[in-house]
């Protein structure tokens, strides 16, 4: 069976000794949308950085789209797994929006015409076509977050991984981003504290704490288990 | 909070704005070079060049007042040239008597100072028109056309992108510092601490700026890696130059050359 | 809003002779080209984001100030701190970026004389800092305060020697007399350099406390570092000797310049195209000035008409 993401018994410690991941196993099927939740320091961001080879674990295996994530495959892996980081300011580093979204396809070696097409495609997917020639630093946080998603979509990845997509957004921008994530027909793993969003659009949730996966199942079941949530520093806001 | 005031680019749809950035950069440099080569004492030539400049400023719809105000930046440096008025040998004009010194203003010296001031003033205005009528991404295109190495151009691009972010941070740091710079109200207690302490605090602020910069650059590097970056700088090819723009370039360059030739023939 | 670094070292256009500008451009381009080759070996793949962000950081840091006395304040140029954090080649490129953007976007320094400004602050400033910092650290091997002593001296010297270079360039361009420019620049910058030194030490203290690993470049001498070290020594040495020499022979310098044709004194025009007085009583220069005035006004007038016409056409 082809899994989009296959993590088996992954363990990782930082150079300063901090044991960030302990025997993590996680599998995602194509077009599955999974939320990754847990308290700060649980290892969510560390796990995410393994998915495109920025970090590599000392033990265990990581495979994406049937490829082992190792030195030889890094280029192809990064084209298949689109990683969107938390701070859009660190993601939008080119002079114009066009340049930032074109970066990925350009590195893949596509022709100028193809690059153009990919840029249009990606900006259309995030509903930001008019922003092509804008300069990134003039945009609002919400606009930047959408463009950041476009910068990886232009590589036509199979998997989209996002770190805290709704953090820092005002209600309108948040609503618009949630709608976008709901509509994108792509395998998605999202690390977030936004429990309302999780309940709304993610059918499956994985809870991490202290480097381990402590729960993995249907969102409804996990959300109703208040003891489980509290035990791992989470809570479900409102009713 | 966005530090927009830092960006001198003013968007208009003037003929100058629409001119290809590569042409604009070459013309600006040619204008400044023409200025630099004008021989001493050739006042009429400066007048012609000023007329050209004012025409360009009007065409660019930036407002002559705007450009002239910003051009005041260059003037303080003229103080460095003032002494030449007194030291250059030549026919003397007048003498000033200050205390026990006699300073004689020579004609070539005065001409030199005024020439320097004029050259500088005209050149600054040309640079202002360029910067205010050309967006930064377009300026990068112009630099690439001038064969500036791609590595350097991409560093320029990144610097520009994060300039605003970091200037924002600096302003916040300074605001935080002034928010904590109060007076104790106690008589006899002088506020501010010692100079050494103030310098060290400022240095700490600079250090934190650099450190956060280095860590931010790590995150940017990860974002670049995530999009396939492999260390090599790649860019899309430059668009072709339209014949109209090339024609403008040639006409104006010939014009500058003619003005210079005239200047040299008459004033040497 | 003060955008410039307020250091009196960014030379505007018009102050240097074309020959001096050209020479310094050539020298700067040569050094930059070499630095571009070398910086990859030092920093690897991270070079572009690292240099870009730090160039922005130095620009921003130049806006920092601390009150010295009354209305005056101390500022940072940054060559020394750039060298200590990034190594010589990256520092040269970073300072090139800072000075170039200052000139291109903010008109802080001219465009034709940009080569000179890059040379003074980017090349001389960086080389002298590198040479001083390495030497002081080596002399005080083992002691932690070697970093701070080296940093202070490197920062101070970078400012003073860069100022001397600036003064000499102004002198050779016949824009400032040597016997005033050199002592004045040296004196002012000897004071300003103290501010630079103190801020640099403060920054180093901060980095040393939070990320000491960034300062531990003891083991590896970067590729080509020897060249920079020697360059720094030469710059400091040559400028230190040349400056007092030049300033004590103001007429001598002009005499030298005259012999080699540097001066732009009014010579007789190449051809006598026009007789001395076309209209009796009015000198040719005055006549030409009037004519130019008329011609110039006509040009401006017609352009203004054209602009007004197109604007009216557009609004209809």
The CATH topology of the largest domain in chain C, please? Arp2/3 complex 21 kDa subunit ARPC3
| Number of distinct beta strands of chain C | 2
Structural class of chain C: mainly alpha
Report the average pLDDT across residues of chain B.
Answer: 84
Percentage beta strand of chain B: under 5%
What is the subunit arrangement here? heterotrimer
* Highest-level CATH class of the largest domain in chain C: Mainly Alpha
Q: What is the domain tally of chain B? A: 2
* Integer average pLDDT of chain C: 80
Number of domains of chain C: 2
Number of helices of chain B: 11
Q: How would you characterize the largest beta sheet of chain C?
A: 2 strands, antiparallel
Secondary-structure-based class of chain B equals mainly alpha
Topology (elements, then pairings):
The complex is a heterotrimer of chains A (239), B (268) and C (316).
Chain A: E1 5-13, E2 19-28, E3 33-37, H1 44-50, E4 59-64, E5 67-68, H2 74-80, E6 81-84, H3 88-91, H4 97-107, H5 112-125, H6 141-153, E7 159-163, H7 171-183, E8 187-191, H8 195-201, E9 204-209, E10 212-218, H9 219-224, H10 226-231
Parallel strand pairs in A: 3-8, 3-9, 6-7, 7-8
Antiparallel strand pairs in A: 1-2, 1-4, 4-5, 9-10
Helix pairs in contact in A: 4-5, 4-6, 5-6
Chain B: H1 15-18, H2 21-37, H3 43-59, H4 64-71, H5 78-81, H6 84-87, E1 92-98, E2 101-106, H7 107-133, H8 136-145, H9 150-179, H10 195-226, H11 243-267
Helix pairs in contact in B: 2-7, 2-8, 2-11, 3-7, 4-7, 8-9, 9-10
Chain C: H1 18-43, H2 47-61, E1 66-69, E2 72-74, H3 79-86, H4 88-106, H5 114-139, H6 145-172, H7 178-210, H8 225-248, H9 250-259, H10 284-315
